[in-house]
């Protein structure tokens, strides 16, 4: 058995334009060669801003969409040919749930479980209890959060080998988010693999071992959370009692984003402070502080690089891809 649960290689997905001729959307390349490798037994965070391509990638993994180019392997099988036997080993929570409104929550869960041959039927009630979901209520009147509980329960109920969860915490209040993360940890502890997408790092930070960051259809970074934290660096502030020129601090190794305001210098430090401190020590240093940056700040660095989706759409249209 291979130790890789999910492997995607050079995935490309083009969406054709849609709609009537007078308001037809242009063709669009949503994935531009995505590589992803999720190891068996790990919790893997799939992070990116809205529209980055997370759902498109996930839907390809489940063969709900076919890629324009590239290869996918899930639990050692090719989703496009493996059929229901592969689906039965996966718990999938879609980003957008569609459920029949006339059923009760309990009937819907029983129905979803029956589609997979009934595995996990007995776990419905305890999970509903844990998430405070009333199984007798019709879906029609349920809030977004209650519908999301149904989605979470149906994904976990049959204790699958692999969980693929698209924005799982959306709509859940903080208490239920915590309950959900406990469920993820329990799945990991019994050896399951979890891929979960989010646009907020803090949602996956505590459970994920590794994360991949996708932006505009490209993976821009894959790393373990500990390394990411290290890369996040420190925000350094130095107060000088004499005149300093900002240029003295430009180009120092590991020092970025240098700003001088009066006698106060701020910068981002990644790595050793040696070079920075040696330049600072030529002056009268009245005070200093160095604060670890939040991982969220690093994450935002990746987001900040401007992307113009309209220009990209036009380019795809122009090249007829
Ligand atoms: N059927 C479609 N036709 C055309 N474009 C699409 C289609 N589905 C998605 N897109 C576009 O592809 C890009 C990627 O969408 P996708 O839903 O995969 O992103 P995402 O990262 O999951 O974002 P979100 O968090 O908003 O769901 C977006 O720009 C989206 O508008």
UniProtKB/TrEMBL annotation:
<dbReference type="Pfam" id="PF00005">
    <property type="entry name" value="ABC_tran"/>
</dbReference>
<keyword id="KW-0547">Nucleotide-binding</keyword>
<dbReference type="GO" id="GO:0005886">
    <property type="term" value="C:plasma membrane"/>
</dbReference>
<dbReference type="InterPro" id="IPR027417">
    <property type="entry name" value="P-loop_NTPase"/>
</dbReference>
<dbReference type="InterPro" id="IPR017871">
    <property type="entry name" value="ABC_transporter-like_CS"/>
</dbReference>
<protein>
    <submittedName>
        <fullName>ABC transporter</fullName>
    </submittedName>
</protein>
<comment type="similarity">
    <text>Belongs to the ABC transporter superfamily.</text>
</comment>
<dbReference type="GO" id="GO:0016887">
    <property type="term" value="F:ATP hydrolysis activity"/>
</dbReference>
<dbReference type="InterPro" id="IPR003439">
    <property type="entry name" value="ABC_transporter-like_ATP-bd"/>
</dbReference>
<dbReference type="InterPro" id="IPR003593">
    <property type="entry name" value="AAA+_ATPase"/>
</dbReference>
<dbReference type="InterPro" id="IPR050763">
    <property type="entry name" value="ABC_transporter_ATP-binding"/>
</dbReference>
<feature type="domain" description="ABC transporter">
    <location>
        <begin position="6"/>
        <end position="241"/>
    </location>
</feature>
<dbReference type="GO" id="GO:0046677">
    <property type="term" value="P:response to antibiotic"/>
</dbReference>
<dbReference type="GO" id="GO:0005524">
    <property type="term" value="F:ATP binding"/>
</dbReference>
<keyword id="KW-0046">Antibiotic resistance</keyword>
<keyword id="KW-0813">Transport</keyword>
<keyword id="KW-0067">ATP-binding</keyword>
